Model the fold of this input.
Amino acid sequence: QLWEENETSTPYCDEAYELYEQLDDRFYMSEVMLLQALNKRSQGKINEVYVMLNQILEIKLEINDLNGTGWVRFNLGIIAAQLRDYDTALHNAKQGIEIMRRLKTMYGLVTFSNLLSWTALIKGNLTETRDIAQRSLTWAKEKNYQMGIVQALTVLGTIIGILEKDTEIAQEIVHTLRKASQNVIAYATFPGQIELCLAMTALSLNDYETTKAEFVNCMKLFPPVYEPLFSMVVIFALKALLDAYDGQPEQEIKWL
Done:
């Protein structure tokens, strides 16, 4: 239903853009363009979105909209990662973090760090991933920013079974995220990622039955259109491990 509503908003966006264009209001023109781009993203038109976001970024830079520039870079980072251009994704995430530091926006710092850590994970930089996520967790805890804590722990929990076997940290992550999953806002924002993290932490505790159960929940919860872009690599690897555990080598090879 959400995606259908996005599609019906398109003519209103088009009309709004024409009105702002007549007024030569480049700020609101760029804001409407961003909404149009996000609508196209929900329809899976990723290449079109990438082109639009670069056009929006040019406008934001021209009009010195620092906050807007940051969030356009955030979306550019996500789309670049979806297009497997991880260097561009990292560049935009790092640029965004610098902007959020200048604006002293904790939400932005943590959100961009989350993007940066997931992209580092995809590139196989596990130590860098952990360091970024831990720094993000520290920032979030300093401000008691609960959503940020969930974001950072989701990343840490996903890699903990790969990078190191720290039972105490794994149990802390499970406890915190199970509590967070009862928070409607946090859970609605990261439905599948929390379950994926719980699966990975269960794996680090050698609890394969819980790992399998959480993996099933994870795949049920990921939205159909917004694919778990950063999580797909982890999902495939986890599925391969579970197939190996169940004695299905052919399936394991397929996922790998």
About this structure: The two ends are 34 Å apart (CA to CA).
